[in-house]
Amino acid sequence: MEKQRCGWCKGDPLYEAYHDVEWGAPVKDDDTLFEFLVLETFQAGLSWITILKKRENFRKALDNFDYRKIARYEESKIQALLNDAGIIRNKLKVGATVSNALAFMKVQDEFGSFSDYVWGFVNHSPIKNRVENYKNGPATTEISDALSKDLKKRGFKFVGSTVTYAFMQAVGMVNDHEISCFRYEQV
Prior knowledge:
With 187 residues, the chain is mainly alpha-helical. The chain has helices at residues 13-21, 30-43, 48-61, 67-70, 75-82, 91-111, 114-119, 142-153, 161-170, and strands at residues 127-128, 174-175.
């Protein structure tokens, strides 16, 4: 019997694997949270499958998403990224990745970890929504609005409420698996 999955991922093996293993599973590790923050920022205005297909290229180009290294990128490295056909070559998004790495570390200094900071917006426990069809799920919420506003206040870029909510879904702060999906009860 075939597994019942959320409608948005059906038909593409890469999408299905990401859905089955990662999407919506709670992430509390700062390194992984930064990776998803970077990927979601690059996804702004694009489809998630585009980003997934380039994920390994991003991993290589961005020093395995090491925010400590990214925060020290100089102009020559930024230019190399802008010439790398394996990633999304958007000057504003590349620049945001560097400035977001710096802001990320400032949040760590203030809160002890980025995880403690970001998960505080959901009282450190995933919100379990009851989405029947992903097409009717929210794109933003009051919480994503508040988190987006606070991230921007702290110097983060490309973190509008829609990007922030997608990040929250990806890292399991909210469970937006369709209630008929096999992952709904697992995460």
